[in-house]
Design a protein that fits this description.
By secondary structure, the chain is mainly alpha-helical. The chain is built from eight helices and no strands. Helix 6 (116-156) packs antiparallel against helix 7.
């Protein structure tokens, strides 16, 4: 119990930890609003207010986040020309997303003209979706490479029970799980982004958005939870 509490404290001390918690509030309240809208309009209105407040607080908390993409490129540009190219495209899209998200937040709280909100939302969502496509491609390439490396280790090792082989296989599998969580989060966020770029009945439905938001939040929660 104490270990879990310690891990929770560490998790919530991170910017990403707080973001995933508030994101959970945001999309749970969206689903609650959809579920009770017809039968309990007062409760639905309170849920909607909770959703909006959570969304705006996340935007405020992400101030300056666009610099993380630049830092990621500076510190880890990629091991091969292909990965460097994918990293530039992915992080550039994410930087556009977080940068224009500042203006979206300011327009929604009344600091800037409210008419800018729709335009800023489109640009931000477009950058987000663009970046996620290349993050997903990169993760699938890495997952494929990990599977091939694992097979090679298992088939070529004369003694598969050695600690070194077991440790290498375990590390590959742990990395694969983390990358699958990243893919799940990015696909979910891509659906949310598409809902802003090109509104459609599937992506813009409250259930689609709510489930996508929770998948993204909980996959990020898993990836950021202290080991």
């Amino acid at each position: 119990m104490n270990d879990t509490v310690d891990k929770l404290v560490i998790f919530l001390a991170k910017r990403d930890g707080i973001d995933k918690l508030v994101k959970t509030f945001q999309y749970v309240s969206k689903l609650v609003h959809w579920h009770v809208e017809a039968a309990h309009p007062d409760a639905a209105q309170r849920a909607k207010q909770w959703e909006v407040a959570a969304g705006l607080s996340r935007k405020a908390f992400r101030s300056g986040r666009f610099l993380t993409g630049f830092n990621a490129l500076r510190r880890n540009p990629g091991s091969t020309p292909t990965f460097r190219f994918l990293a530039v495209l992915a992080n550039a899209g994410e930087m556009v997303y977080f940068f224009f998200d500042h203006f979206l937040w300011l327009s929604r709280i009344g600091v800037l003209d409210a008419k800018l909100a729709r335009r800023m939302s489109f640009i931000s969502a477009f950058g987000e979706s663009f970046g996620y496509i290349f993050f997903i491609i990169s993760d699938f390439i890495m997952i494929k490479g990990g599977v091939e490396q694992e097979r090679k280790l298992i088939t070529t090792s004369t003694d598969k029970s050695t600690d070194d082989v077991k440790a290498s296989v375990r590390k590959i599998r742990e990395d694969r799980v983390m990358r699958l969580m990243a893919v799940a989060a990015n696909v979910a966020d891509l659906i949310i982004g598409v809902a802003d770029i090109e509104p459609n009945p599937f992506c813009n439905h409250a259930v689609s958005l709510g489930i996508s938001g929770l998948v993204s939040a909980w996959a990020g929660w898993y990836r950021n939870w202290p080991s």
